[in-house]
Amino acid sequence: MRQHGKKRYAPVGKVLAAVIGVLGIFWLAASNPTSASDPPAVKRVVVPAPPPPVSVYDTLESGETLAELLADHGFDGPAIHQVTQVVRDVKNPRTLRPGVVARFTGPASSNPESVLLLVSADSLLELVLRDTSWSASVRTVPVTIDTLRLAGLIDSSLWFATLSGEVDKLGDGEFQEYVYDMADNVFGWKVDFTRDIRRGDAFRVAIERERRPDGSVRVHRFIAIELANRGRRYQAIPFTRPGGHREYFDGEGSALRGTFLRYPVDFRVTSSFSRRRYHPILKVRRPHLGTDYGAPRGTPVKATAAGTVTRAGTWGGYGRMVEIRHARGITTRYAHLSRIGVRQGAFVEQGDLIGRVGSTGLSTSAHLHYEFLVNGAQRNPATIDLPSAPALEAEFTQEFVGVRDQALAQLDMVALPVLPAEPRVAAVVAD
Length: 431
Ligand SMILES: [Zn+2]
What we know:
Layout: H1 12-30, E1 54-59, H2 66-72, H3 77-90, E2 101-106, E3 114-120, E4 123-130, E5 133-140, E6 144-154, E7 161-165, H4 174-186, E8 202-211, E9 217-229, E10 232-240, E11 246-249, H5 267-276, E12 291-294, E13 300-302, E14 307-314, E15 320-325, E16 330-340, E17 347-348, E18 353-357, E19 367-374, E20 377-379, H6 397-411
Helix pairs in contact: 2-3
């Protein structure tokens, strides 16, 4: 086996989890569905059991080729040549990255007869020796599907939510992914997660997960979400029209998707940015006729709604800016950009990339200045009532009601948390 030049140390727990995960993958890959019931025993014969096959694990090092790794495990020149040939049919061996874990299995006193490489989180490369020839195949890492139910009570921000429900099932960083997804893809039209989340807000969510043997989540799908935000209740239930996209509706079948996004920069970016450093621009300066989003230079800026670009260039204190005219007398402006990605006169769809965050014009550091104008007058997009996408058509109502009831039953397995009432101070009566 190759000497490892450099060693990186990781927390014992993580290493252990990784090892157990890898073993789990190999175990699942090895388990055979052919374990039928035993045939009736006729005669008992004692045969010396062959020694069990032995597995050895190794990792592809940086700069090491598959051929070199195989040579370390007893493969001779012709065998290496043959394996490389059959691997090429299913996978380019040069795409194997350092860190790929390989399991070599074979009789204790002989060369390996099978090799299993975990080439990515979701794919395995299997090499098998039959008689004298090797074959190669690519397999998908098996996943298990489960349902996770969580609730959260927000203290100061989503990052300081007190979680309840099946918290012990959550992996590292998993909750954050759900928050980003909720903020941008579910409630992005209804609630500005960058500034409208308050202490006492709460949510509960049921999530279907596809998990890999190491416990990491390959895919998640929301089954249902409920968000209590500043005294309003929002429910989100996904539903897919035949041949359509997965969309979120409330309990009555109204679409959550709206004609305008509540914010032009991904929550993922602004939230982590605001947490990381203090942003002087975010201090309220009056008069300030727009909303400032702290985000690093270069962050993509999205059109909050479909419309026609009426300005794309430098304009006084706005610096490099884009202005879009939408339906119903609404105009949006995106200022201090470092780069502009559209031309005047172009038509853009909601969510299209129109530029990148910068600090041009009257600006002291990178941020996005966003304005929302109705008939030429600046308005607060957070408080304005904006139209939603069309509700679910009547022909799907019956099917939706079935989906909804099942989804809400999942949600009801956790309670929506509420802030405990402020303790009352009883009058002290001196006697
Ligand atoms: Zn501003």
